[in-house]
């Protein structure tokens, strides 16, 4: 099988490529150049897809004896990930750019080109598995499981995906990389937004969106102070509110709602964050059981826990409503709601599909 190995320059994709070679596939490595700045470098080991990462990926491919290429996807990345990120915050949402990058770039765009060039599959270093029936499942390494950010794929795309490291704990992956002699064996994981390498999201949004003054108000609409832009806040936020007047009950305040149109940021007690219903659109389907009314579990953050729910799927209208058995806190518009079906076989929960949260009921 002809396999295109997506090489981020990290340890996971390095071992994924090595395992694809060991499996007897005809493997070619490719690194995606996503920055419009050709001199972009990794800052404090926070981001990914930098010049250093490209060099690391090349060295791995040289050791494996496979071809290596760099593909420039920077224009598409800027349009479909960075601009989407900015627009989403400007609407008062809290997007996940890594999830959108998986959806639009690392699988849709990359897979489209790979198939056009005659490759059969794309291999990545994501921690998830595909079972013998072709369904996406959680990784056995719960701490590293990335099935949530893969929940935006389509079933057609999944047919051409390989996740060679998805069934292995991370420490073992590092040991395997060291055995191969890869320089990436001890390389730190990237953990921030790649196009904001210093990690200062508010400063980035301030430069791109600009100042949009508005008011922070309490649950009764009383004005507490002015702010410079609603994009500085997210649902569930507690720190950085800088409100001088304490609440009547003396308890901490949290951001409970954001109205980007008026610039109003509402704050209130922790209990005001409780959400009992979630509406999501832009649905993606990965399993035939994601239809009609189903009992399942939902995850609304990349590293969040799951909650039991009753999902009402309106496929033809492209939306779903989730009735939560127990309220969830800090659910923000723009995040993904990924549905899971628990499985008794111990091989990881099955991913049913996903939607983008557009409305919540408290």
UniProtKB/TrEMBL annotation:
Cite the position(s) of the site with description Interaction with tRNA: 126, 335
Has the keyword Glycoprotein been applied to this entry? Answer: no
Q: Where in the cell is it found?
A: Cytoplasm
Quote the SUPFAM superfamilies the UniProt record gives. Answer: Adenine nucleotide alpha hydrolases-like (SSF52402)
Q: Which family does it belong to?
A: Belongs to the MnmA/TRMU family.
Could you tell me which NCBIfam families the record lists for this protein? PRK00143.1 (NF001138), trmU (TIGR00420)
Please identify the protein, giving its name as recorded: tRNA-specific 2-thiouridylase MnmA
Native source species:
Corynebacterium poyangense
């Amino acid at each position: 099988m002809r396999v295109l190995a997506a090489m981020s320059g990290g340890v996971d994709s390095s071992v994924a490529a090595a395992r694809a070679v060991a499996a007897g596939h005809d493997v070619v490595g490719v690194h995606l150049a996503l920055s419009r700045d050709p001199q972009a470098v990794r800052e404090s080991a926070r981001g990914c897809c930098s010049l250093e990462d490209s060099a690391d990926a090349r060295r791995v491919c040289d050791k494996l004896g496979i071809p290596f290429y760099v593909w420039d996807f920077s224009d598409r990345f800027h349009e479909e990930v960075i601009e989407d990120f900015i627009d989403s915050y400007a609407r008062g949402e809290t997007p996940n750019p890594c999830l959108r990058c998986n959806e639009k770039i690392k699988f849709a765009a990359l897979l489209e080109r790979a198939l056009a060039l005659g490759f059969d599959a794309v291999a990545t270093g994501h921690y998830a598995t595909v079972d013998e029936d072709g369904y996406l499942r959680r990784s056995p390494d719960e701490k590293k499981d990335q099935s949530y950010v893969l929940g935006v794929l389509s079933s057609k795309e999944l047919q051409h995906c390989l996740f060679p490291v998805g069934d292995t704990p991370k420490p073992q992956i590092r040991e395997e990389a060291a055995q191969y002699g890869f320089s990436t064996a001890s390389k730190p994981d990237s953990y921030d937004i790649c196009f904001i390498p210093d990690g200062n999201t508010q400063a980035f949004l301030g430069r791109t969106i600009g100042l949009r003054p508005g008011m922070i108000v309490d649950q009764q609409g009383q004005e507490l102070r002015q702010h410079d832009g609603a994009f500085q806040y997210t649902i569930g936020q507690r720190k950085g509110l800088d409100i001088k007047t304490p609440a009547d009950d003396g308890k901490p305040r949290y951001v409970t709602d954001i109205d980007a149109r008026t610039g109003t940021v509402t704050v209130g007690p922790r209990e005001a964050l409780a959400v009992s219903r979630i509406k999501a659109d832009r649905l993606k389907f990965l399993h035939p059981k994601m239809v009609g009314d189903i009992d399942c579990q939902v995850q609304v953050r990349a590293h969040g826990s799951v909650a039991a729910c009753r999902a009402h799927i309106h496929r033809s209208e492209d939306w779903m409503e989730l009735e939560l058995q127990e309220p969830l806190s800090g659910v923000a518009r723009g995040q993904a709601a990924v549905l899971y079906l628990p499985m008794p076989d111990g091989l990881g929960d099955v991913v049913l599909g996903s939607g983008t949260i557009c409305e919540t009921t408290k």
